[in-house]
Amino acid sequence: MDYQSKQKLATIDNFDGYQFETFTCDLLKALGFSDIKRTQGSSDFGVDVYAKNGDTSYVFQCKLYASPVGIKAVQEANSGRSYYNCKKAVVITNSYFTPHAISASEKLDIDLWNRDKLASLIAEANV
User: Fold this and answer.
1) In angstroms, what CA-CA distances link 89 with 11, 33, 45, 74, 86?
2) Domain around 115
3) How many domains would you assign to the chain?
4) Which CATH number is 30's domain given?
5) Where is the signal peptide (predicted)?
6) Rounded to two decimals, what is the model's pTM?
């Protein structure tokens, strides 16, 4: 992990949830996603951000955690993918995932973007 990514992650660790969702939108834009929209808070059906990459629609569940993210986030992303009729679902976090979350994500075909993946994407997008 390069120095710039480490610095950015340290900043992200001090964000609130809203700031992390906003950062996720900015990151997705820098990565070439389009039609990026934040959902409406408490009635979001497990989705914080909607976006498209080419013809593929995505839902993102953003989790700003100090500890590993559990299975509930994966279940929420799966529900949100179904509700919004999207092809892909992603749980993105500044942390890592529990073994149960990883297992569920494999069975449900949910992408998990953990701290290491986030650092890699930050470097790729230069944000």
Assistant:
1) 25, 14, 12, 9, 7
2) 3-125
3) 1
4) 3.40.1350.10
5) none
6) 0.94
